[in-house]
Amino acid sequence: MKSQILALRKQILNGEKTINDIVDEACEKCTKFKDTNSIITDTYTKAKQQANDLQKNVQLTINDLLYGIPYVMKDNVCTKGICTTSGSAFLKDFVPPYNATIYEKLNHQNAIMICKSNMDEFGMGGDGIYSAFGAVKYFADLTRIVGGSSSGSVNLVSANVVPFAIGSDTGDSSRRPATLVGVVGYKPTYGLISRYGVMPYAPSLDHVGIIADSVVDTAIVAQHIVSFDEKDYTSQHIGDKNFYKNLKKIDKLTIGIVKDIEKYLMPNVLKTYLECITYLKQQGHIFKYVDFMDEYLKAIHTIYYIISYAEANSCWANLTGIHFGVNFGGKDYSEIITNARSSALGEQVKRRFTIGAYITKKENYEKYFIKAQKIRRLLVDQWNLCLNQVDVILTAGASSVTPTIADVLTNKFKTTAADDFLCIANFAGTPSISIPYCKIDNFPWGINLNCKQFADQSLFNIAYTIETQFEQKKEQHE
Fold first, then answer.
1. Which residues pair with 472 in a beta bridge?
2. In terms of Cα–Cα distance, which of 144, 188, 180 is closest to 430?
3. CB-based contacts of 98, cutoff 8 Å, min separation 6
4. What backbone phi and psi angles, to 5 degrees, belong to 161?
């Protein structure tokens, strides 16, 4: 059973390493990968003190799976007394007066946060290069992106700095970057992980995400942080949330695939994608095409932007520079707001806010926003019909391997409808997970799996089954 969390826990139990040792090593690795620009705020001093306190009172039980385990938190999660920027110069000195529920839960489990990770400003960007604090660079090749917006969190897990990290996922922000750098990225059913204290991008699409080295570790973390939260008005109840405890392999799966997606994959990825399907057929799984039309695939990109831009503009109307954030002064409220936004917001955010404001103008609201919501409903209805026909739907985790930063900035590289398809799980609030498959041209690539709402346990079981079979395939070729 592949698990860094359980391996570290075993070392603590056996006295091979102390919690101090483990946290010190994680902090040292962060320093080693400083050139990747994955960190906005380090919390090394606090982490080492917490490690020291926990080591003095080691009381591990069968349920204390995260006790003393270091992790990384995306910097859009509010942490009381610790700077939380959401990747924006507007909030470069913002220190929240309260904790997000997700941070409280991890503290309660005695997990140790070692840093706040870099991210696209307010989560707006799919490449990890739109932070006010600079682009996040893939640790294995500094010329390439990690993907966004949870780039810092994903990069530090991929670099083996920590066994897990917290991200967020509005369109694919935990899952696509996980695919690009060879780790697991999970987005739960909408509302299962509280978003209280997590800075929003688009609330109807936002999810807290988990990034880890394996499905087992992802299930362990989910088991500890999924719960109903009355502070989050979108929070949902689930019955049994013992995802790790109930983890099991499944002998035979009926796996759905979308035929029209294949033409949107780069040639080298398409070849690997088809090889992956062939391999899983050889393991006894049954494949069938599900009917998600090409017209629907093409619509996802536009619908996502219309809804997310409009919601983002509404959510961040409070970025005035008056109550919090930077303040450059001015003769009246209007000038203060203009000066603050003009000087402190990045171009990507300005662009999205401007389009969002246009979409929500009285004369445009019905024409764009309401129509987009209606099309979203059609897409979700069709998606749910597809999910009802199979155990799981498998698709490519990305249309390509990780591109270079230069190609992204010069528009030589662009995502396709295969990447956009990951957004459908955000539209529908259905659980989704990306797992590594192999390397293409020496760069990681993986697949994405999807199940029905609240079928998160089934998703974990399926992902665990397939991950194990991928590991067996790798061992056979070594």
1. none
2. 188
3. 78, 80, 197
4. -80, -45
| Pair 418, 265: CB distance under 8 Å | yes
Closest CA to 182 of 460, 454, 442, 453: 442
pLDDT of residue 6: 97
Query: Rounded to 5 degrees, what are φ and ψ at 315?
Result: -60, -40
* Confidence grade of residue 478 (pLDDT, cut at 50, 70, 90): low
Beta strands (DSSP E) in 12-125 are: 39-42, 70-74, 112-117
The H-assigned helical ranges of 365-430 are: 371-387, 405-409, 417-420, 424-428
DSSP 402: P
How much is the pTM? Answer: 0.97
Amino acid at site 160? N
Measured in residues, the chain has a length of 478
Active site residues: 74, 149, 173
Structure tokens at 97: 């007066």
Residue 176 has pLDDT above 90, yes or no: yes
Residue 410 reports pLDDT greater than 80 = yes
At 461 the pLDDT is: 98
Indicate if the pLDDT at residue 62 is higher than 80: no
Burial class (CB in 10 A: 0-12, 13-18, 19+), 345: buried
Q: In what order do the strands lie in the sheet with 39-42?
A: 39-42, 112-117, 70-74, 164-169, 207-212, 184-187, 432-440, 443-450, 392-396, 254-257, 286-289
